[in-house]
Structures are given as structure tokens and as C-alpha cells.
Amino acid sequence: MKRISTFLPSLLLSVVLTLVILGGSLLVVSDINITGGKAVEIVRENNVGDKIYSELEKHWKSRYYTTGVPAEVYLDAVSPEWLEELAEDGIYQGFGMLDGTNLSSEISVTIPSILNAYGLKRNQELEDSISGFFSSYADENGIEKDEAYEDSVNRAISSAFNVINSNVDVYKFTALKEHGVIKKAAKAYGLLFKGMLAAGAAALVLVLLLMLVNRKSVFTVLYWFGISCIVSGVLGAAPCVYLLASDYFSSFSIKQAQIYTAYTASMSSFTAAFMATMIAVTVVGIAMVILYGVIWSIKKQKDKAAPLPEEKVN
Description:
Blueprint: H1 4-33, H2 36-45, H3 48-62, H4 64-67, H5 71-75, H6 80-99, H7 124-140, H8 147-168, H9 173-178, H10 181-190, H11 192-213, H12 220-245, H13 257-305
Helix pairs in contact: 1-11, 1-12, 1-13, 2-6, 3-6, 3-8, 3-13, 6-8, 7-8, 12-13
């Protein structure tokens, strides 16, 4: 290992291998954690349905003096569970646009029989509550239930579902789609698996090259591979430790509680997963270096114990 002819090439290959391990680990963690299922899990763990309900409550109470419709007309007909279910549907549809399973590129439930006219799961109770309020108001104030009346009722129902739709889209897939972000992200998302294969192939090639360079002492590859794992592990884990220890993501300023929770919890979860992965990589690297040390020590002892070749007698 001390020879320049093997040391410098091994060092160079080890540096490249470090970057490959770091990048490959990031791709693997991304593939596992950036999914609809993981996002839904985060929504459930953080009771996002309750936060959506609270946001709707604030909205409709603040609109009372403008619309004249009490917040209870809406709130008594919706529940945190239903709202969370809508949020989960939106998440799966959003990720469907990323992985290509949602070919319509629209965020809405795809089963027509359970949809209302506003693209959300049917909630007849909410529609009846709004219609009932307007009907009672019209009866009490002698308002004729003509075409203008029906138009007012329909606009109120449409407005309610639009507000709900905006609030249950906790990852703002709709806004991302409108700004062209989803289309660009889908291309990168589709390359995750190919990227993992490329990283694995590159790592294998680099290990084979290390074996070729150190062919006279192949077990030395354990040292170089171990060092690469340790360095990449430290480089990957150190920033994660800082981000989590400083509670960095909590400093983000997002007004709507459900969106704030969804994004900050997702980023914290991803960071924790990547940190755990890089710590595991570091441990593997340390084990390899220790194993190299043991093998080198045994080999050295055997070399010392081996008898010297006898001198030829003239």
C-alpha cells in the first residue's frame, strides 16, 4: 500500500468511490422515502386532517360578515377524517403524475361514481346543509326561489368545495403543476431507479479497478472501500445531524398549518432516513477497516513465522 504505483491510483479510485457511495445512498433513500405511501403516512402521523379542519374553520368564520353564512353550516357537515381522506387521495394522485400512473395529470379522485360536480368525494351532507341554509333564509325573508336563487346556492356550494380542495392539497401539487414544476420533477423522479443501477454498476467497476491495482495484495481493497464508506458516511450524516439538532425546518414560514406540517415533517423524515443510512454506511466502513487490520496482522505474523530460504551450498 505504501508503493506510489499502487497508492496514488488507489487513493484516486477511493475518492471517486466515496462520491459514488454518497450519491447512490441519496438515490436509494429518495426512492424509498419520496413516495405517495410515505407522504400519506406522514399525513396520518401528524393529524393533518385536524389542521385542515382548523384552517377551514378560520376561513369560514372570517367570511361570515361577507357572505352571511355561519361557519357551522359548513363545519357541521365535514369532519377531520373526511378531510384527511381527501388529502390522501390528492397525494396519491399527485405522485401518480410523478411516476406516470396518473395519465390524466389531474389531481382528483378517479372513480366517477363517488365524485360530485366539484371533483371531490361526494359529501351530500355538506351540499344539503348549504342548500338547507339558503332555503330557510329565503323562506324567512320572502325571497323567491327562482333562477337567481338557484345560482346563488350553486355558487355557495362551488365556493365551499373550492376552498376545501385548496386546503386538502397539502403538498400543493396543483400549484406545482400550474407552474410546470411537476413536469420537470417527473423526469427526475423517473430516473431514480436508473440512477441507482448506474451508481451500483459504478461502485462495482471501481472495486474491480481497486482489485486490479492492488492485485498483489487484494485484501487491501477492504481498506480503501472501508475508507470510502467512512468518508462518505461522515459527509452525508454531518449536515443531517445539524439540520435535525437545530430543528432547522421549523424555522420555515408557511401560513397554512397543514401545508407547513406536511412539508416540514416530510423534510425531517427524509433527513432522518438519510442520516440513518449514512451512519450505517460509516459503520460498514469501520468494520471493513478493522477486518483489513486483522487480516494484515495475521499475514504479517505468518510472514515472520515463515522459515527463510536455505542458502545454496557450493
